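Sample log: tRNA synthetases class I (C) catalytic domain-containing protein.
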Amino acid sequence: MFVWNGAQLPRLKILNSLTKSKDDFIPVDPTGKVVIWYAYGPTVYEDAHLGHTKNYVSTDIIRRIIKDYFGFRVRFVMNTTDIDDKIIVKGRQQHLLARFKQELATEDDSVADSLLAEARAHL
């Protein structure tokens, strides 16, 4: 137990994934009152879905517990990666498929199903 603002609070323990043990949480700030937290956010490369919110909700809950229950001031930053190689590759594939359709389309603007299936198999 430790005392903060006249109240005895249990020590905050954090699971150390390297040692598989629970260690006391000790902020880097010398006053011991400020927690600086940087979290990697999601890299979104598909349409938005409910799973994307899990990261935001879980980190918000932890942040509120650290702030409201343990009394730390929390400086929280989360990035959002908006592009990576998967997005670039997918865009290139879509471009090549569109060109493939354009070059092989018949007069009625259709492409043989077998050609489309073969093209999609290589995406």
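Observation: The longest strand covers residues 34-39.
Observation: Residues 42 and 54 are 10 Å apart (CA to CA).
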